[in-house]
Amino acid sequence: MSHAVDAVDAAAIALNQRSWIPTVEEVALGREFFTRRDGLEQRLLPGMPTCRDPQGWATQHVLWLEDVACLADQLLSAWRGYLPGSRMVALLGAYADQIRPAVPLADRLTRAWLNDPQRPAVRSHEETLWWEDWHFPRADRQRLDETTQRMIVIGAVLVTAVAQGDVGGY
Question: Taking a C-beta distance cutoff of 8 angstroms, is the pair 127, 43 a contact?
């Protein structure tokens, strides 16, 4: 079991047993993360059409994860020294660790898109479907699904921590 999983499980148990009630500062960190994360725009690669599916392109999700990892790293850098030993910092760190593997995938997909010599200025919906099928194979998508599922679990513990630390809730 990894250190990040231990931190998430320990925080979830402590919240459930009410042996950890996040401080005002910890709640501020959690709120700032969620506010800024929720404000992130879904990015499209240049010339990528808007997806007809409300969930967007798989590539958009990977780019969003890259942006979230960057945001989490920025907040951790700013708050880690201010809240040493904080469970909220550990939770946010586990969240960032979980999604950080999406960063090289986002880079690989971006490079493949931009460096395609056959790429028209704007791709059609069908061309983009084909491109994602070719450059984002099923195995990568399965790993992304696993990453997303674990990210959701860690996010739920973060939301609970913010809500329990601040009776007003998230």
Answer: no
Interval 40-52: pLDDT, tens: 999 999 999 999 9
Instruction: Report CA 133 to chain centroid distance, whole Å.
Output: 22
Tell whether pTM > 0.85: yes
CA distances from 163 to 27, 57, 58, 59, 125 (A): 8, 32, 31, 32, 41
d(CA 11, CA 88): 8
Of 82, 76, 87, which Cα lies nearest the Cα of 6? Answer: 87
